[in-house]
Amino acid sequence: MKRTSACWLAAVLCLAASGRGLATAAADKPLDSASGKPNIILCMTDDQGWGDTSYNGHPDLKTPELDRMAAAGIRFDRFYSAHPMCSPTRASCMTGRSPVRYRCMDWGHDLPLREVTIAEAVKTAGYATGHFGKWHVGGIPNADGGTGRGLPDSFCPKPRHPGNQGFDEWWSAGNWYDIGHEFIYHNGKQVPPRKGDTSDVLMDVALEWIGKQATTGRPFLAVIWFPSPHGPHKAAPEYAAAYEKYGKAKANYYGELAGVDHAMGRLRKALREMKIADNTMLWFCSDNGGAFPLSTGGLPGGKKWLTEGGTRVPAILEWPARIPKPFDTTIPACTMDFYPTVLDLLGLQMPDQVDPIDGMSLMDLIDGKMKRRPKPIPLVSGQAVRLIDNEYILQKGRLFRFDEKQRKDIDITDRHPEEHKRLTALENEFRASVKKDQAVYTVKRK
User: CA torsion 69→74→79→81, rounded to 10°?
Assistant: First the structure.
């Protein structure tokens, strides 16, 4: 472990059938006759909105590989990023904790080494760990737009790069990168740019590493964070060509997403060819709401906004051994749920865990046993909180439900005073807890 005392997520929302049925419980089914430990892959895009898939009804964009993945696993219709900006959400994926607790409150803010990461956790269970792509939570030089903003300077002063956050292997960039980007680092050493679409280049190195792990039979965690479709949008010609009729800007934006879709298809095919697909927990989501016209699928707001359009993102889980029958769900889930789900799955308890964990295990949802989320999701931006509790939403002291047809929050404060009171108390508890957590950090502004 790296730490010492000095270096330190009205109507009952249920599983939507959508003609696909409910999941069958498979908790007693062996995941792998050899090790019992599934491989774990966390894929995430950069600025892809909820509407940026054809399975969510985009009028122009085609994402056939993501469509197939959604049809084969769990499609989350209410999945949220913990924050409407990239770095805080990325930190939440790693820790299961709201990023404001450790002052990762905006893009370019670091993930402090005091926090226990998902990579560190699975290493205690014998996993190999690798990070590939955009990092943007500290420690990598030449991050466009800077890094270390809001950096807590107490506890351990070491760089916050993936190698110091539990990853054995990393091929990463500090922030976004595009075709020909020169600031890519492999295990801390700068490497030359590689030719080709960034999603394909990223998948090349990720699949090379995954192949090595598959050969040894060692379970692995691969975190694959695409730089697309973050601006500046520069799609490879072969991916932009199908969208030229929409103009240059859209052709490049849609082309970047087409590149992501193609790369996800390569990944799914490779897992099958390696004969590890059944026992691989393959996740896909985005880091925040969309920042491009049509990206949010009509949801209000977008990137930077603490709204449905700013925080609801596309999300899929494919895992044939545990999810033999695909289904859709409207039960809310969040990027903070990755960490506690994996701990629950592997039966891990981290001795240096920093509490509280804000996410929750999704294993009951995965096994078709969850009808309602038992724990609210605290989404944050600055000092603002949007508390998601199944059909209820609390924000700015008012109680809402989100109307999917009208695509807007409907104020129901006066109709449900007891729910308003209950969630207000929970928000107050959350704020007090955050204040206590933040007090342990001193912040050096840059």
Answer: -60
State the pairing for strand pair 220-225/280-286: unpaired
The CA–CA distances, whole Å, from 25 to 28, 30, 363, 368 equal 8, 12, 10, 6
pLDDT of 14 reads 32
pLDDT tens digits for 52-102?
999 999 999 999 999 999 999 999 999 999 999 999 999 999 999 999 999
Strand 169-173 and strand 128-134: the pairing is: parallel
Contacts of 197 (CB under 8 A, 6+ apart): 179, 235, 236, 238, 239, 259, 262
Query: Which two structure tokens, joined as six digits, stand for 282?
Result: 């393959």
Residue 227 · residue 177 · CB < 8 Å: yes
Per-residue pLDDT reduced to its tens digit, 22-59: 333 333 333 343 347 999 999 999 999 999 999 999 99
Report helix, strand and coil shares of the chain as percent, to nearest 5.
30, 20, 50
Cα maximum dimension of the chain: 61
Q: pLDDT tens across 144-183, in order?
A: 666 666 666 556 778 999 999 999 999 999 988 888 888 9
pTM of whole model > 0.85? yes
CA 39 to chain centre: 17
Q: Which residue has the tokens 């047809």?
A: 405
- Residue 129 or residue 34, greater confidence: 129
Residue 251: half-sphere exposure toward Cβ, Cα within 13 Å: 13
Domain architecture of the chain: domains with CATH: 15-374 (3.40.720.10)
Q: Are 89 and 82 in contact (CB under 8 A)?
A: yes
Q: State both tokens at 397.
A: 């002291």
DSSP string, 208-224: HHHHHHHHHT--EEEEE
Give the pLDDT confidence score for residue 23 in this predicted structure. Answer: 35
> Residue 112's closest CA among 129, 91, 96?
91
How many CB atoms neighbour CB 395 within 10 A? 18
Alpha helices by DSSP H, listed for 377-416, are none
Q: Is 386 helix (H, G, I), strand (E, B) or coil?
A: strand
H-run or E-run covering 26? none
Q: Is the pLDDT of residue 8 over 70?
A: no
